[in-house]
């Protein structure tokens, strides 16, 4: 056995291998507990159907240039896509909190492993889970009348952008999951993330909102993120929104990462 | 010394949990930290296993300072806490392989060690079932098996049998004895005196954040004059007569029984019987009690009165 020759102080860290091990653990957990993934897909799909078929006719008529239900399906799709991501990251907060309440994290903390791998395992697992959920939700959107104009390149850019957005929000939720004292709080703390898409340009154009709300909607991160998605999917120029969205993602990812790391290393 | 601790202090807010703890544990022995709930046992284990930092004092485990070289300490130790540290969604075998992967074992080596540990801990039949379906005893065995995957030099067992049924507790004891036979050093905390008596080479009694006594089980028992003879009587008259004959006796609650301090030797018993005979006191039952670790524990932690009364 090779490890027996090394003294404890000589042992090296293997962050990549440890992260891969933790990722495998999280993927296995997702397979054992598929109801979570199904819920992540179901919730945005229900909102999609609601907004396209119940509100879509009226809301679509109010869009610039009118257009009714068909135009509204195109308008609301990016917001539903973003909801899929926020639902997934809420799930991340819950599973982190579940981990924390069980003894396994304490075990990991007393083991000679790359510490951050516990968190990166969750982050990578959630990004994969989000991509699966997004594929399913976009598929349903296409079935109910979403007609994007994006070329293959546009789709690739969209996919890349969605990974970036998910990555940023997951890190935030890894911190929120650790802050929570229980699984219940972990499912409540990220609620603003679920609500924020409604207070953005996702469901109705911001210029239809009262002044104060409009100011908030135009300056919160989800509006540039949705506008960027909309432009990419509809093959329109992205403009400044793309950079503003990426800047927000960078801030959220870095802030979430540093906060998470600090929380993970705090005393238990 | 595999573990050496000097002047360890830790407080949480205003609450002083450890108030200057000193301990030494020689290699290849079982050391038991004995104490009631809240005595500071788990806090001590958390500090020694690098989970939390002490406010003051020094602690070395396997030759490394827990505060300055936590990574080296982590590479040398294994910890099984009182709350099962297993992934309940994964199967028993998957939990063990997870540990093997985290210890950078090759796939073949990992599988081999997993199979051997499943066999040794009698978990082979349940290997493919999610750990969430395991009984308390099985969970504890899996937990300890996971700790052993990395072949630690020092194992911390924090109340390893709390909440287990008597059979599982005995199985756990046997497992611990086998570990010592392999040359591992074990640091065990428990609130069960029997457990410390059964397993430990040395015992330290922790009370109010301090070590109030340390030694082998025998040494500790010798320190306490807890031996007595218990006399049981048929009625109040006989009991009253006996109390007149034996001034040193104390009554056991409201019952018809007296306790007479005694070392339990034959001559002491003979003297006692003679004194009772002189007054023609009829004794219903008589039994000799030598001090056990319970007496030691209760006496040392200042709760002896509860037991006597």
Low-confidence runs of chain B? 304-309
N-to-C CA distance of chain B: 42 Å
Low-confidence stretches of chain A: none
Q: In oligomeric terms, what are we looking at? A: heterodimer
Kindly report the CATH topology of the largest domain in chain B: Rossmann fold
- What distance lies between the first and last C-alpha atoms of chain A, to the nearest angstrom? 34 Å
* Annotation, overall tally of beta strands of chain A: 0
Count of individual helical segments of chain A: 11
Radius of gyration of chain A: 20 Å
Calculate the mean pLDDT score of chain B and round it.
88
Shape type of chain A = elongated
The biggest beta sheet of chain B reads: 6 strands, mixed
Please, how many domains of chain B?
Answer: 2
Lateral strand order in the biggest sheet of chain B? 6-7-8-3-9-10
What string, H for helix and E for strand, traces the elements of chain B in order? EEEHEEHEHHHEHEHEEHEHEEHEHH
> Beta-strand percentage of chain A?
under 5%
Percent helix of chain A: over 70%
Written account of the structure:
The complex is a heterodimer of chains A (268) and B (309). Chain A is mostly helical and 268 residues long. In chain A, 75% of the residues lie in helices and 0% in strands. Chain A has one domain. Chain A has 11 helices and no strands. The model of chain A has no long low-confidence stretch (mean pLDDT 90). Chain B is α/β, with parallel strands linked by helices. Helices cover 38% and strands 25% of the residues of chain B. In chain B, strands 6-7-8-3-9-10 form a 6-stranded mixed sheet, sandwiched between helices. In chain B, a hairpin with a 2-residue loop joins strand 4 and strand 5. In chain B, helix 3 runs parallel beside helix 5. The longest helix of chain B is centred in the middle third of the chain and has 16 residues. Chain B starts with a strand and ends with a helix. The interface between A and B is medium-sized, with 31 and 39 residues.
């Amino acid at each position: 056995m090779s490890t027996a020759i090394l003294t404890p102080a000589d042992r090296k860290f293997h962050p990549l291998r440890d992260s891969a091990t933790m990722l495998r653990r999280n993927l296995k957990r997702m397979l054992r507990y598929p109801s979570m993934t199904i819920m992540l897909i179901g919730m945005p799909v229900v909102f999609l159907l609601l907004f396209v078929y119940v509100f879509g006719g009226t809301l679509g008529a109010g869009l610039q240039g009118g257009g009714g239900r068909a135009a509204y399906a195109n308008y609301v799709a990016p917001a539903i896509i973003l909801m899929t991501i926020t639902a997934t990251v809420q799930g991340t907060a819950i599973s982190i909190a579940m981990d924390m309440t069980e003894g396994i994290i304490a075990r990991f903390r007393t083991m000679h492993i790359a510490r951050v791998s516990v968190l990166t395992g969750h982050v990578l697992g959630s990004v994969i889970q989000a991509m699966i959920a997004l594929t399913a939700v976009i598929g349903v959107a296409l079935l109910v009348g979403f007609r994007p104009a994006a070329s293959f390149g546009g789709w690739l850019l969209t996919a890349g952008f969605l990974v970036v957005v998910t990555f940023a929000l997951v890190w935030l939720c890894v911190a929120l999951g650790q802050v929570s004292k229980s699984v219940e709080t972990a499912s409540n703390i990220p609620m603003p993330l679920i609500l924020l898409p409604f207070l953005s340009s996702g469901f109705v154009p911001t210029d239809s909102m009262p002044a104060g709300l409009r100011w908030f909607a135009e300056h919160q991160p989800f509006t540039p993120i949705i506008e960027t998605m909309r432009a990419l999917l509809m093959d329109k120029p992205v403009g400044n929104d793309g950079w503003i969205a990426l800047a927000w993602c960078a801030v959220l990812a870095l802030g979430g990462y540093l906060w998470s790391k600090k929380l993970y290393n705090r005393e238990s | 010394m595999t573990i050496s601790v000097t002047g360890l202090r830790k407080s949480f807010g205003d609450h002083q949990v450890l108030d200057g703890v000193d301990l030494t544990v020689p290699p290849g022995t079982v050391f038991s930290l004995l104490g009631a709930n809240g005595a500071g046992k788990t806090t001590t284990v958390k500090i020694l296993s690098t989970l939390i930092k002490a406010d003051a004092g020094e602690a070395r485990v396997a030759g490394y300072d827990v505060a300055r070289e936590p990574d080296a300490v982590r590479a040398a130790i294994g910890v099984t806490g009182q709350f099962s540290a297993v992934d309940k969604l994964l199967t028993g075998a998957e939990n063990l392989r997870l540990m093997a992967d985290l210890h950078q074992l090759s796939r073949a080596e990992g599988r081999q060690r997993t199979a051997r540990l499943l066999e040794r801990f009698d978990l082979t039949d349940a290997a493919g079932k999610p750990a969430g379906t395991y009984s308390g005893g099985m969970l504890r065995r899996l937990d300890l098996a996971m700790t052993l995957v990395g072949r630690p030099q020092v194992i911390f067992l924090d109340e390893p049998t709390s909440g287990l049924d008597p059979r599982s507790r005995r199985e756990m004891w046997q497992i611990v004895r086998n570990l010592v036979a392999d040359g591992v050093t074990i640091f065990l905390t428990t609130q069960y005196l029997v457990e410390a008596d059964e397993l430990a080479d040395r015992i330290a009694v922790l009370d109010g954040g301090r070590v109030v006594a340390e030694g082998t089980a025998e040494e500790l028992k010798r320190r306490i004059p807890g031996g007595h003879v218990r006399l049981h009587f048929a009625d109040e008259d006989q009991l009253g007569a006996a109390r007149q004959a034996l001034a040193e006796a104390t009554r056991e609650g409201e019952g018809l029984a007296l306790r007479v301090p005694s070392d339990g030797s034959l001559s002491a018993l003979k003297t006692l019987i003679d004194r009772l005979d002189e007054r023609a006191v009829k004794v219903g039952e008589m039994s000799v009690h030598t001090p056990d670790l319970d007496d030691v524990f209760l006496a040392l932690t200042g709760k002896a009165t509860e037991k006597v009364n």
